Amino acid sequence: MTDFSLHLLGAQREFQAENLPPATSPHTGQQLRRVKLELQVPGDLQDDLENELKGAAAPAGQPLAGEGTTWLVTSHSYSYTDAAQPLVYTHRLELQEVEELRATAVEVAGLTLVPIQYKEDVDEETLLVTLVIDVSGEEGERLEELIVTQEDQYVDVIRRGVSETPVRMRFGRCLWQQGEGDTRRHNLTLVADEGQPDRPLGFAAINQPQLGRTIEKTVANAKALDLLVEQLRSQGVLTEEAAATIKAAALPHDLTLRESREFCRTSKIENFWR
C-alpha cells in the first residue's frame, strides 16, 4: 500500500492505495500508473461523490486532481449495509494516470504546423489527431497540395511535445474557413489506421450514394457554367460586365433564410410526421 492524495468533494483527501500493473499509453507508448483504493462516505454525500466519479470516468471524463498528476476512473463500484446507522457507502475505485497531450507543433510530411487547438483520441485502437491551424502563403499552398493529392496515402507525422516517434497517418476530414487575405483556418483530422481493415461506413453512409452523386453533379454544373460564360464572353455575346455579374452570382455564399427555405421542400410531407 502507498500514500495517495486525490481531490474529491471539494477538498484534497489522503488515502491508502494499492499499485496495479501500469497501462501502456496508446498515444505515446509510455507506462501510465494505475492504482486501486477504497473509501467510505456518509449517505448524505453519496450522490455528490457518485456524480463526481461518473464525471471522471474514462476515457473522456474530467480528470480528478492528484499530487502532480491527474486521474481518470477506469472502474467503480460501491456497496452499503441497510442496517448500518448512520448509512455509510463504501466505494471501490481503480484509477489511471492521465498524460498531457499538448503538441507544440505537428510535422506532416515535413510541413510544420503550429496548432491553435489540439486533441488526440483513440477509437477502437486507432489514433486520431485533430488540430486547428492558421496558414497562409507558401505554407498554405503546400498544405492544400498535400490534402488534395495524398487522399488515402499515408505520410510520416511527428507530434512535437507528445512523441518524437513518427506515426504513419492519413488525412481524414479536413475543413477550412477563409480568413483575412490569403490566410485559411483549417480543422484537420489525421488518422493512424494503416494496415487496418476498412470499417463499415455507419453514419457516413446516410444519404449515400445519392449525396455523392449530387456533389459530382454540382461540381460539373459549376464548371459547365463557367465555361459557357467564358465562351459567350470571348465570342462577344456577353459583355465583360455581364460575364462578371453571372460569375459573381454563381459563387458559393451563405444562404439567406429565403434561399434556405427551398431546401425544406418535400413532395411527401407525411413521411416526416413523428
Percent helix = 10-25%
* Quantity of strands, as a count: 13
Estimate the strand proportion: 35-45%
Any idea what the radius of gyration is? 27 Å
**H/I helix tally:** 5
Given helix and strand content, the structural type is: alpha+beta
Largest sheet: 7 strands, antiparallel
Measured distance between first and last alpha carbons: 58 Å
Top keywords for this entry?
single chain; 5 helices; alpha+beta; 6-stranded antiparallel beta sheet; 274 residues
Description:
Helix content is 24%, strand content 41%. The chain has helices at 46-55, 137-150, 210-234, 240-250, 257-261, and strands spanning 2-8, 11-24, 31-42, 64-65, 70-80, 88-98, 105-108, 111-113, 117-123, 126-135, 155-160, 163-178, 184-192. Helix 3 (210-234) runs antiparallel to helix 4.
Please sum up the structure shown:
With 274 residues, the chain is an alpha+beta fold. It is built from 5 helices and 13 strands.
